[in-house]
Specification:
- By secondary structure, this protein is an alpha+beta fold.
- It is built from three helices and five strands; from the N terminus they run E-H-E-E-H-H-E-E.
- The protein has a five-stranded mixed sheet with strand order 1-2-3-5-4.
- Strand 2 and strand 3 form a beta hairpin.
- Helix 1 runs antiparallel to helix 3.
- The longest helix is centred in the N-terminal third of the chain and has 17 residues.
- It is globular and about 35 Å long.
Length: about 130
């Protein structure tokens, strides 16, 4: 990622995956996932992306080395216009990113999982049914 001093790595499927999907919606979801991972990333941090197929699901995970999400904020990440308290900087958006990510997942027969022990980074996984992609 140019000019950020953040390392992005990828591990997973290398062959194309075919299916019926809304590519614009999935692209926005992935861009929001990357953007969210970068927002609270310290200089020199890293983002690890992985794409795997498990049974009839595709799992795209992004794990970052950022600050994690506080427990009291985690329960509201899918609420429209909800942002982490204390962040008034407009560069951090309107609080719609996770809503768009979850919408893309559910529209493709899946869901979103979040694992974020405070202070130890965050892993966001979007699951999509194989029939859709």
């Amino acid at each position: 990622l140019e000019n950020t001093k953040i390392t992005l790595t990828y591990d997973g499927l290398t062959e194309p995956v075919y299916g019926l999907a809304n590519p614009g919606q999935l692209e926005r979801a992935v861009l929001n996932m990357v953007s969210n991972a970068m927002k609270f990333m310290p200089e020199g941090g890293c983002i690890q992306a992985a794409l795997v197929r498990k049974d009839n699901m595709l799992h795209l995970s992004l794990r970052d080395s950022g600050s994690g999400i506080a427990d009291h904020v985690l329960s509201t990440v899918f609420t429209r216009y909800q942002r982490q308290p204390g962040i008034e900087d407009s560069r951090f958006g309107l609080g719609l990113g996770m809503v768009l990510i979850r919408s893309a997942a559910t529209d493709h027969g899946g869901t979103v999982l979040i694992d974020s022990p405070e202070g130890k980074g965050t892993r966001v996984t979007i699951q999509i049914k194989k029939e859709h992609v």
